[in-house]
DNA sequence: TTATAAAAGGACATCAATGTCCTTTTATAA
DNA sequence: TTATAAAAGGACATTGATGTCCTTTTATAA
């Protein structure tokens, strides 16, 4: 399971993308409201994202968050990596420090399939691909697709 | 990812099973050492397991932990359910409160596959099936299979 | 040029997961 | 019957994730 912070981050980025497509640069308040997260905490997460160049921001009047051209293919993996690290893609499901093909835990083979499947998803899907689905009306960002 | 407590619990139960097959009933100290977990914390987790009837215990001299005949087909799901609950099998990967087939988040379809795959594993594998692999030398409980 | 609106950032607060310590209960061996 | 060994249990400590508040920086509009 992804951490709450990572979930907030992904939803926030998707919302920024959707607004950017409407030529808007949402601010912390608007983002926090949309993704149903506490405003001050959302601000921290957005700081992490901009500090790590996953997204850009402008201070001052008329400022807000947005993607520039280098940031238009942002995989979910990139986001997870920055927000919570990538332990979930390496860690043994059984909790062993030393677990690998040569020295497998009794869950190794089966768990690997699931873990690699998840890795494949987050390496394939991007903030933009998810946003596209919402824009098309095939998925929702929060309750209803408004 | 499973919580540390759940990992400890699963490893502890597997070790108890292995020792039981040798006609032994290990105590907290022996279990904690084997699974490389803090002794007092291990004791708490073992308490949870016995209180929930996943395993049995005897107090006093010569006491320890063991399985009785009703407890010889313990799925990993049963353990997870008792130790950390089953949020990981229901929760939306995107963090939405309302996410289902009719109102899907943009990750719904792909994530479902992974989540259900994991559910299948933990409903199929049991403490006994994992222990069997270790007994056969096909997997390890900690570093080396001793 | 100044007031304002917005992000950035530092310091602190809360809560749940993890971990520790000490006392109580209980079964068995001597 | 008593001493001992072991689990049970209560209270507290630590840590990391989550969350809050207030100040600082900076871009823009008036």
How does this structure look, described?
The structure is a homodimer of 146-residue chains. Chain A has seven helices and two strands, in the order αααββαααα. With 146 residues, chain A is mostly helical. Chain A has a domain at 4-86 and 126-135: Winged helix-like DNA-binding domain superfamily/Winged helix DNA-binding domain (Arc Repressor Mutant, subunit A, Orthogonal Bundle). In chain A, strand 1 and strand 2 form a beta hairpin. In chain A, helix 1 (4-21) packs across helix 2 (28-35) and helix 1 (4-21) crosses helix 7. The longest helix of chain A is centred in the N-terminal third of the chain and has 18 residues, at 4-21. Chain A is elongated, with a radius of gyration of 17 Å. Chains A and B meet through helix 1, helix 6 and helix 7 of A and helix 1, helix 6 and helix 7 of B. The first copy, chain A, binds a DNA duplex (30 and 30 nucleotides) through helix 3.
Give the C-level CATH assignment of the domain at 4-86 and 126-135 in chain A.
Answer: Mainly Alpha
Largest interface: A-B, 44 and 43 residues
| First and last CA, distance of chain A | 27 Å
Treating each run of at least 4 consecutive H or I residues as one helix, how many helices of chain A? 7
Number of strands of chain A: 2
Mean pLDDT of chain A comes to 96
CATH fold topology of the domain at 4-86 and 126-135 in chain A: Arc Repressor Mutant, subunit A
CATH architecture of the domain at 4-86 and 126-135 in chain A: Orthogonal Bundle
Oligomer: homodimer
Main sheet strand line-up of chain A: 1-2
Strand content of chain A: under 5%
Overall form of chain A: elongated
CATH H-level superfamily of the domain at 4-86 and 126-135 in chain A? Winged helix-like DNA-binding domain superfamily/Winged helix DNA-binding domain
Unreliable stretches of chain A (pLDDT < 50, length at least 5) are none
Structural class of chain A: mainly alpha
* Biggest beta sheet summary of chain A: 2 strands, antiparallel
Helix content of chain A: 40-55%
Please state the CA-atom Rg of chain A, rounded to the nearest Å: 17 Å
Order of helices and strands of chain A: HHHEEHHHH
């Amino acid at each position: 399971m992804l951490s709450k912070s990572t979930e907030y981050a992904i939803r926030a980025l998707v919302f920024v993308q959707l607004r950017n497509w409407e030529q808007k640069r949402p601010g912390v308040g608007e983002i926090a409201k949309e993704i149903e997260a506490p405003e001050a905490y959302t601000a921290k997460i957005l700081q992490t994202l901009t500090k790590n160049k996953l997204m850009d921001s402008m201070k001052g009047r008329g400022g807000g968050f947005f993607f520039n051209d280098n940031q238009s293919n942002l995989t979910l993996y990139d986001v997870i990596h920055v927000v919570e690290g990538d332990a979930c893609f390496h860690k043994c499901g059984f909790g062993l420090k030393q677990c690998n093909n040569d020295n497998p835990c009794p869950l190794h083979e089966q768990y690997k399939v699931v873990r690699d499947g998840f890795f494949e998803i987050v390496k394939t899907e991007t903030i933009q691909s998810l946003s596209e689905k919402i824009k098309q009306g095939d998925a929702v960002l929060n309750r209803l697709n408004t």
